[in-house]
Amino acid sequence: MPDSLVVLAVMAGITFASRLLPFLLFSRTRPPRWVVTVETALPPLVLWLLVFYSLDGIAWRTPPYGIPALAGVGIVILVHRWKQSALLSIVSGTAAYMVLTRLLA
């Protein structure tokens, strides 16, 4: 049991240090341009990576030919553009995917 507490304390310390480091480095100066670019470009890129990863396991050549997944992604995009609500767009896209999976299977 004490070994696991030591491991937990080390992990907590490393996590805390990694969260504290940017504040220590950039507290008095503005961050470099590349840091600003990364912090603005990285979140959308990670989300697109998750979308492509989730579409990877779809059998595109057998029925229903990926229609439920593509419709779900499309509905997520449309609802998010319309209402600007991440929760509403994710719930509506998931619901559309589940309904279409049941209807077309």
Topology:
Blueprint: H1 2-25, H2 33-54, H3 67-83, H4 86-104
Helix pairs in contact: 3-4
Output the keywords.
4 helices, mainly alpha, 2 domains, about 100 residues
In short:
The chain is mainly α and 105 residues long.
What does this structure look like?
- With 105 residues, this protein is mostly helical.
- It folds into 2 domains: 1-30; 34-104, no CATH class.
- Helices cover 78% and strands 0% of the residues.
- Helix 3 runs antiparallel to helix 4.
- The protein starts with a helix and ends with a helix.
- The mean pLDDT is 93.
**Number of helices in the DSSP assignment:** 4
Helix/strand-derived class? mainly alpha
- Number of β-strand runs: 0
Biggest sheet descriptor: none
Low-confidence stretches: none
Report how far the terminal alpha carbons are from each other: 50 Å
Mean pLDDT, to the nearest integer, reads 93
Q: Assign a percent range to the helix content.
A: over 70%
Provide the number of structural domains.
2
Strand content: under 5%
* Radius of gyration, in angstroms, nearest whole number: 21 Å
What pattern of helices and strands is seen along the backbone?
HHHH
Query: Overall 3D geometry?
Result: extended
